TrEMBL record:
Residues 1-10 have a biased composition (Low complexity). It comes from Synchytrium endobioticum. Belongs to the mitochondrial carrier (TC 2.A.29) family. This is Uncharacterized protein. Residues 27-37 have a biased composition (Polar residues). It is found in: Mitochondrion inner membrane.
Length: 414
């Protein structure tokens, strides 16, 4: 039985399914009944979806899953862009807004001050860079998750929670490697109190000193300058990987577990669209894929985001501080380096090596610096905002991904 197209995507807000029409008995004189076409995504997105065999490693599936993931991630990030801006200001101890950190009320006051001083568009400062980053990031993340899951669990008999978590972690690391340079530029844009052109930030990051190549890379050969410049866009990448492993693994594992629980638990009659018809179809030997209502997808995504955020937040704080360390200590290095890039030794009593070290702390050194300034709570600054942010972000992201899979006709079993 087919439900209305919006039934699976809109859950409880979908129109009631039509009553099944009686199937006339066949007679010798009747023409053979033609099967309904299954190529239409809206027909495939009915609440009762018969399981079919498809190749998830085909180019068509890979491209469509990337489009679905990219759109889902972009929609989710747009919803929480103002909170994301304030959270970055708190995490990086921006001197103009640091005194607001520590409470949701402070976050609201910070947003009010931003609006008063710079207008509503300032809440979305850096959002264009966010979308440039998040589309490929989310596209690669969801696509990679589907591919890793297919490799680790090629059939239903091999499914396991541990393999699902590993697939999620590997997908997270893969996606962050692709999108990390844009994430660093986005953080720099959000950290600035005044509007700064995107390309100006890119040039600044590229020309900053790189600790692996010394304080002055401008006089080195072009390949060395290129490697050093590109390396600057991966500042803070190591703690990002450390944080992404639990973040992506926990989020995908929790979401898939909650989704399965909604389909099989006592709340299944309320969570599954056309639950009675699905059960009857399965009892009759038809293997069908149940579709959850909107609230079940949204709730599963929200809870998965909360657990993922809590498991990886300290590493996120370390990463953010490493990304803006060069901006924070730019005044010190201006005293160390002259206009042509040569070293002013002994000027203002600053050691060039120490000045460079301030700008390019390692993961461990950044953690020590945060602990020395704020103790253990310093690793959780902005966590309350983080929870407020991830609840709608993960809810919208997973829900939109499920909806886009139905629209693109790739909502397959497995």
């Amino acid at each position: 039985m087919l439900a209305s197209p919006a039934s699976a995507a809109a859950g409880t807000f979908a129109p009631q399914p039509r009553q099944a029409l009686p199937i006339p008995s066949k007679s010798p004189h009747s023409a053979p009944q033609q099967p309904l076409p299954t190529t239409c995504p809206m027909l495939r997105s009915s609440s009762i979806m018969h399981t079919e065999t498809h190749d998830k490693q085909s180019l068509d599936y890979i491209l469509k899953s990337m489009v679905a993931g990219g759109i889902a991630g972009s929609a989710a990030k747009t919803v929480i862009a103002p909170l994301d801006r304030v959270k970055i200001l708190f995490q990086t101890s921006n001197p103009h807004y640091e005194h607001y950190a520590g409470s949701l009320r402070g976050a609201v006051r910070a947003m009010r001050e931003i609006i008063q001083n710079h207008g509503y568009p300032a809440l979305f400062q850096g959002h264009s860079a966010t979308l440039l980053r998040i589309f490929p990031y989310a596209a690669v993340k969801f696509m990679a998750y589907e591919q890793y899951k297919t490799i680790l669990m090629p059939n239903g008999a091999e499914k396991s929670p541990l393999k699902g978590m590993i697939a999620g972690s590997m997908a997270g690391v893969t996606s962050v490697f692709v999108s990390y340079p844009l994430d660093l530029v986005r953080v720099r844009l959000a950290f600035q109190s005044q509007r700064t052109p995107f390309l100006s930030i890119v040039r600044t990051v590229y020309n900053e000193p790189n600790p692996w190549f010394g304080t002055n890379t401008s006089r080195r050969r072009r390949p060395v300058r290129l490697i050093a410049g590109i390396g600057n866009f991966y500042r803070g990448f190591v703690p990002t990987v450390y944080g992404m492993i639990p973040y992506a693994g926990v989020s995908f594992y929790t979401y898939e577990s909650l989704k399965t629980w909604c389909m099989d638990s006592l709340i299944a009659p309320a969570a599954v669209v056309n639950w009675r018809e699905v059960n009857e179809a399965n009892d009759n030997g038809s293997h069908v894929k149940p579709q959850l209502r909107a609230w079940a997808y949204l709730t599963s995504g929200a809870l998965s985001g909360m657990l993922a955020q809590a498991s990886s937040y300290p590493m996120e704080v370390i990463r953010r501080n490493m990304q803006v360390s060069a901006v924070r200590h730019a005044g010190i290095m201006s005293k160390v380096l002259s206009t042509n890039g040569s070293i002013n030794r002994g000027r203002a009593g600053i050691n060039p090596t120490q000045g460079l070290a301030l700008m390019t702390r390692t993961t461990y050194e950044t953690a020590k610096w945060i602990y020395a300034r704020k103790g253990v709570p310093g690793f959780f600054v902005g966590l309350s905002i983080g929870f407020v942010k991830v609840v709608p972000m993960f809810a919208v992201s997973f829900y939109m991904y499920e909806w886009m899979k139905q629209v693109l006709d790739i909502d397959w079993e497995g």
